[in-house]
């Protein structure tokens, strides 16, 4: 008996169709530095023009996925923005180190390859790359029945950025008296969705309902893509106006901001300095979740924190105001107390 690959659940022709369908979206993210992208065994990116003026070039890389937010996208059959989340999870990390994002690669694993859905996914990834200043230069698309079932799929990504060693951001530049600027998040972003899904199930929330205080349905609110901060933050990095930055992902403010605080200092955060978005209030009430647990899991409305010296504060605020970037002054850096990050109340 002769066995066929397609009988095993893998459709080579569908894969070829999917690749052809995404080429236009991918090409829109690329620039003259991309020498070879889709089609070869490896993507090629020239650094010659990027190195102008950089004395000590440092490559910074980041890799991540979207987590169980994907399950909500599958259940809602809404796949057009989840690719933005994927890019943001990688690009915001690279940006927080002080790097200019250069290029991005993705991985898409599926149980059954649907060229139309893959096209929608990649268009979202391409949109995120354009927002982040990244060239989408390659990736992998794998159909693996048995590992992924039915309409399930997984996404992961890999971003590379470039910085001058002298302009790297981090705890080595943070000083007592520095100010904490919290950049507004677009919502839940891409962390804590295992808890979100548990709350929905336990409280029997209607994801298609529009709850008080929301501008759209619960599912649309939860699938709002993660904000990309490149346009807001990179000009400040170029100008040398930041000491450090923290991308607020899983672990909340305490864990992520704490990475940027040296052992002899403490970041004091005033939680009353910004208004927590309604979606977090709904989740906390429905799930009977403590405030400390909410802060440990979610961004609570602050997607990135900039650490700025006193001498640069006015200029940074003026730049953010000019860009109409949502932000709040949320605290300051002081001499070491008990923890790296402490809430005022």
UniProtKB/TrEMBL annotation:
<dbReference type="Pfam" id="PF02769">
    <property type="entry name" value="AIRS_C"/>
</dbReference>
<keyword id="KW-0963">Cytoplasm</keyword>
<dbReference type="Pfam" id="PF00586">
    <property type="entry name" value="AIRS"/>
</dbReference>
<dbReference type="InterPro" id="IPR036921">
    <property type="entry name" value="PurM-like_N_sf"/>
</dbReference>
<dbReference type="GO" id="GO:0005829">
    <property type="term" value="C:cytosol"/>
</dbReference>
<dbReference type="InterPro" id="IPR016188">
    <property type="entry name" value="PurM-like_N"/>
</dbReference>
<protein>
    <recommendedName>
        <fullName>Phosphoribosylformylglycinamidine cyclo-ligase</fullName>
        <ecNumber>6.3.3.1</ecNumber>
    </recommendedName>
</protein>
<dbReference type="InterPro" id="IPR004733">
    <property type="entry name" value="PurM_cligase"/>
</dbReference>
<feature type="domain" description="PurM-like C-terminal">
    <location>
        <begin position="175"/>
        <end position="342"/>
    </location>
</feature>
<dbReference type="InterPro" id="IPR036676">
    <property type="entry name" value="PurM-like_C_sf"/>
</dbReference>
<dbReference type="InterPro" id="IPR010918">
    <property type="entry name" value="PurM-like_C_dom"/>
</dbReference>
<keyword id="KW-0067">ATP-binding</keyword>
<dbReference type="GO" id="GO:0004637">
    <property type="term" value="F:phosphoribosylamine-glycine ligase activity"/>
</dbReference>
<dbReference type="GO" id="GO:0006189">
    <property type="term" value="P:'de novo' IMP biosynthetic process"/>
</dbReference>
<dbReference type="GO" id="GO:0046084">
    <property type="term" value="P:adenine biosynthetic process"/>
</dbReference>
<comment type="pathway">
    <text>Purine metabolism; IMP biosynthesis via de novo pathway; 5-amino-1-(5-phospho-D-ribosyl)imidazole from N(2)-formyl-N(1)-(5-phospho-D-ribosyl)glycinamide: step 2/2.</text>
</comment>
<keyword id="KW-0658">Purine biosynthesis</keyword>
<keyword id="KW-0547">Nucleotide-binding</keyword>
<feature type="domain" description="PurM-like N-terminal">
    <location>
        <begin position="59"/>
        <end position="162"/>
    </location>
</feature>
<comment type="similarity">
    <text>Belongs to the AIR synthase family.</text>
</comment>
<keyword id="KW-0436">Ligase</keyword>
<dbReference type="GO" id="GO:0004641">
    <property type="term" value="F:phosphoribosylformylglycinamidine cyclo-ligase activity"/>
</dbReference>
<dbReference type="GO" id="GO:0005524">
    <property type="term" value="F:ATP binding"/>
</dbReference>
